[in-house]
Specification:
By secondary structure, the protein is α/β, with parallel strands linked by helices. The protein is 16% helix and 32% strand. The strands form seven sheets. It has an eight-stranded parallel barrel, surrounded by six helices. Strands 10, 15, 16, 18, 22, 23 and 25 form a seven-stranded antiparallel sheet that branches. A five-stranded mixed sheet has the order 17-24-19-20-21, with no helix packed on it. Strand 6, helix 6 and strand 7 form a beta-alpha-beta unit. Helix 4 packs parallel to helix 5 and helix 8 packs parallel to helix 10. It is an enzyme of class 3 (hydrolase). Belongs to the glycosyl hydrolase 85 family. It comes from Castanea mollissima. Its EC number is 3.2.1.96.
Length: 674
């Protein structure tokens, strides 16, 4: 028998060089040398990895929930700053249950990818990076870090500088090494100086100490706040207590903390490794004990249900698990709080992508920066057959992005069904407020919004926004306002935009509910009595804004769009690929206030030709969404028939409106001669 030749293995990829152009990624800093040198700021990737959503909230003086995300070493699908193609990647959308989010990995300096910071900030949640030393290399790093008071201060300042530049809110400090007692004074200098520098640079920022090394230098987890770790607690903003505590430790720790009891975060390992209550589906048992003990809680590794493939699927198990957290801990974030308020219910992933009701891409995608305000949908474990199921359905049409809220089931003719969407804290002023929402429905299924208001005089009002007069249950509401429906030109068939204006000066919008009902039967066409009929409707978006606030975009002539790092590569038979960095800014130099930009490429043919599928070469192709004023196009296929490329930067406003493509800024590149 002949011996087959050994199969040749492809050469390993070259080591990552952050100075060279490539698809932008977020990555950690692995050595003190790189931290000291500030080389991160010279990276090609640095302009792309800045968070773009500022944080508007302050940390309240109540028990809080910290969530520490530790998953398979970190920097997975979330590292791709411009998004990826894995629509099944991990995400979080129960932000209304937490106050602080920590991005954790076992690398010296863990910098949160901007997608986490953007979506957390949007929901009022602070974001921390992690500084960790562990094992032998951690001991070596500590010897350098703590060699002098000056070195401790210098490295603290480097960490603070990174947080400010990248737009996150502070640090979790985890010193998982044994130290010499003589190093402790400089460790305290490091923690204190980092805390003070962060506070002066970012008001409201946090530095939290992890319960590991003691004041005597021993690596000895205390599982509570006591005299062995309190000296570190006293010079920073809180302590993350190790998760192997006993039932009385939360209350004992609260007593030691005094009036700072809510700065004690009792740890819970969701994987259940020696954690109180066992974690997993019993995580809420530990939360209940912490709640009674009057401290805060720190949930570690909530991606447990994703990593262990809990049944029946991730979407359901995630909603069920966080539903248990909600029942135990309660809702801690309220929105809407400010105007304009806009949500398309996007979870930051999907199987298609839409703009203004028109589907512009059928490709799967993942980009948590695109996540809109998430609805507070109560988890129903076993919905009954005669009820309406409420869910985010990625397979159904989206008005914007890849999300929606879908309502499906059966509904009696004169009945109505409500489902909570948001808990608000929005004080209305003198001006009327406009409400706009998009609906796609089947048959006589109708969808409205119920708005709950309260006043300083403890007066409550409920207003129903509905597309027609509702007689059968209008008495259930203080007022019914008939919306103005219209189909927006250019939308996909079936989307109807509903609009209404409300004047409620001095009232606070406290809750928003979806209301499912049926339209009145046509005259002389009564329905059969007692016949529950199939109900189906999709809510695409909600926008709330002041009536006088007009959406306006600068004309395309107001922008400067430039190309950098242009790189052509030949493929075959005259076809090429193009990689290029696009940047844009307003000519007058003012800072832009737009949250995101949709990027398209339009391939202009030498002559109009059609391929076998009948599509024209000059149809704009959606490339992705940018959340900074830069976008890197990597290996764009350029057929040989192409004469030039036009890149279109579609500007999108905070109220969800997007500039028309024909009015958007552009940049053109000639293909011929390249």
């Amino acid at each position: 028998m002949s011996v087959s030749e050994p199969e040749l293995q492809p050469p390993p990829p070259p080591p990552f060089d952050p100075t060279l152009p490539s698809l932008p990624i977020s990555y950690p800093i692995k050595t003190l040398k790189d931290l000291e040198s500030r080389s991160y700021f010279n990276s090609f990737h640095y302009p792309f990895i800045k968070a773009s959503v500022p944080l508007k909230s302050v940390l309240p003086n109540r028990r809080r929930l910290l969530v520490c995300h530790d998953m398979a070493g970190g920097y997975l699908d979330d590292k791709w700053v411009q998004g990826g193609t894995n629509s099944e990647a991990y995400g979080i959308w129960h932000w209304y249950l937490m106050d602080v989010f920590v991005y954790f990995s076992h690398t010296l300096v863990t910098l949160p990818p901007p997608c986490w910071t953007n979506t957390a900030h949007r929901h009022g949640v602070k974001v921390l990076g992690t500084f960790i030393t562990e094992w032998d290399e951690g001991r070596v790093a500590c010897n350098e870090l703590l060699s002098t008071k000056e070195s401790a201060h210098m490295y603290a300042e480097r960490l603070a500088e990174l947080a400010v530049a990248l737009g996150f809110d502070g640090w979790l400090i985890n010193m998982e090494v044994k130290l010499d007692p003589g190093q402790i004074p400089n460790l305290k200098e490091f923690v204190d100086h980092l805390t003070q520098t962060m506070h002066s640079s970012v008001p409201g920022s946090l530095v939290i100490w992890y319960d590991s090394v003691t004041i005597h230098g021993d690596l000895d987890w205390q599982d509570q706040l006591n005299d062995k770790n309190k000296p570190f607690f006293d010079i920073c903003d809180g302590i993350f207590v190790n998760y192997t505590w006993k039932e009385n430790y939360p209350r004992d720790s609260a007593a030691v903390a005094g009036d700072r009891n809510f700065d004690v975060y009792m740890g819970i390992d969701v994987f259940g490794r020696n954690t109180y209550g066992g974690g997993q589906w019993n995580t809420n048992n530990a939360l209940n004990v912490i709640k009674k003990g009057e401290t805060s809680a720190a949930i570690f590794a909530p991606a447990w249900n994703y990593e262990t493939h809990q049944l029946p699927n991730f979407q359901t198990s995630q909603n069920r698990w966080w539903g248990l957290v909600e029942k135990s801990w309660g809702i801690v974030q309220n929105y809407p709080k400010d105007l304009p308020f806009y949500t398309n219910f996007d979870q930051g992933r999907g199987y298609h992508f839409s703009v203004d009701g028109a589907e512009i891409s059928k490709d799967p995608w993942y980009n948590l920066s695109c996540q809109g305000f998430q609805p507070l949908l109560e988890f129903v474990d076993s919905p009954t057959l005669d009820s309406i199921q409420t869910l985010v359905d990625f397979n159904k049409a989206s008005y914007s992005g890849g999300g929606n809220v879908t309502f499906k089931g059966t509904l009696e003719e004169n009945a109505f069904f409500t489902r909570r969407l948001f808990h608000g804290e929005l004080l209305l002023g003198d001006l009327p407020v406009n409400f706009t929402y998009s609906v796609k429905s089947e048959g006589d299924s109708q969808l409205g919004l119920s708005l709950q208001f309260s006043s300083t005089m403890n007066k409550s009002m409920s207003i129903l926004l509905a597309s027609q007069e509702i007689y059968q249950f209008s008495s259930k509401f203080s007022q019914v306002i008939t919306t103005r429906p219209h189909e927006k030109p250019g939308n996909s068939p079936g989307w109807v935009i509903q609009e209404a204006s409300i004047a409620m000066n001095g009232y606070t919008l406290t809750e928003i509910y979806a209301v499912c009902y049926r339209s009145k039967p046509e005259f002389n066409k009564p329905r059969p009595a007692h016949n529950p009929v199939k109900y189906f409707a999709v809510l695409g978006h909600i926008t709330i804004k002041n009536s006088e606030k007009k959406s306006g975009f600068p004309p395309s002539s107001s922008w400067i769009v430039e190309a950098q790092f242009i790189k052509w590569a030949s493929v075959s038979q005259g076809s090429k690929t193009l990689s290029v960095k696009l940047i844009w800014k307003l000519k007058d130099g003012t800072d832009t206030v737009f949250p995101n930009y949709n990027i398209y490429a339009k391939k202009l043919a030498k002559q109009v030709v059609s391929d076998q599928y009948g599509s024209l070469e000059d149809v704009p192709k959606y490339l992705g969404t940018a959340h900074v004023e830069a976008f890197y196009v990597s290996d764009l296929s350029v057929p040989c028939e192409t004469s030039s490329l036009k890149f279109i930067v579609q500007v999108c406003a905070a109220d969800g409106t997007c500039q028309k493509l024909d009015d958007s800024p552009t940049f053109s590149i000639d293909v011929e001669g390249q």
